[in-house]
UniProtKB/TrEMBL annotation:
InterPro entries xrefs: AcCoA_biotinCC, Biotin_BS, Biotin_Carboxyl_Carrier/Decarb, Biotin_lipoyl, Single_hybrid_motif
Pathway: Lipid metabolism; fatty acid biosynthesis
Name of the molecule in the record: Biotin carboxyl carrier protein of acetyl-CoA carboxylase
PROSITE patterns named in the record: BIOTIN, BIOTINYL_LIPOYL
SUPFAM superfamilies: Single hybrid motif (SSF51230)
Residue ranges annotated for the Lipoyl-binding domain, each copy included: 73-149
GO cellular component, one term: acetyl-CoA carboxylase complex
Length: 149
């Protein structure tokens, strides 16, 4: 691959929202990624612990609620690009639900990447306040998946 093409490729990837990129051409391989650190994230408020009828809101009702700031330390983000699965197998119940208490190291989701199932573990003890992705949704690297307080 010619140097000019490599420079152009780096510029295109840098200007895009891609966080990872890999290309192989005639035995020459390039792998690039972006580290997007220290971002503040605003998410829609999700249903809280199931203590009242309001906590059983549908997705449509949740999306119409007010935006709230979520501290970075309460977000559990995807470690890779792939497909998110809420359960360990099709037809099984979700690993966690909003309101569940979780322990550090507990598997709370799965991201499939390149036909490998990668378990997503809670990074701290706490309560699942929100699940920010749907089952079988494609997720990006560093995309928030859960709010755990």
């Amino acid at each position: 691959m010619e140097f000019d093409k490599i420079v152009e490729l780096v510029k295109v990837v840098s200007d895009s929202k891609l966080t990872e990129f890999e290309i192989e051409d005639d035995g020459f391989r390039i792998s690039m990624g972006k580290n997007i650190a220290d971002q503040n994230v605003v998410v829609k408020e999700m249903a809280m612990m199931p203590a009242s009828p309001a906590s059983t809101m549908t997705t449509q009702e949740q999306s119409s609620s007010d935006d709230h700031f979520v501290p970075e330390e309460n977000l559990l983000k995807s470690p890779l690009v792939g497909t998110f699965y809420a359960a360990s197998a099709p037809g099984e119940p979700p690993l966690v639900k909003v309101g569940d208490t979780v322990s550090k190291g507990q598997v709370i989701g799965i991201v499939e990447a390149m036909k490998l199932m990668n378990e997503i573990e809670s990074e701290k003890d706490g309560v699942v306040k929100a699940i920010l992705v749907k089952n079988e949704e494609v997720v990006e690297y560093d995309q928030p998946l859960f709010v755990i307080e």
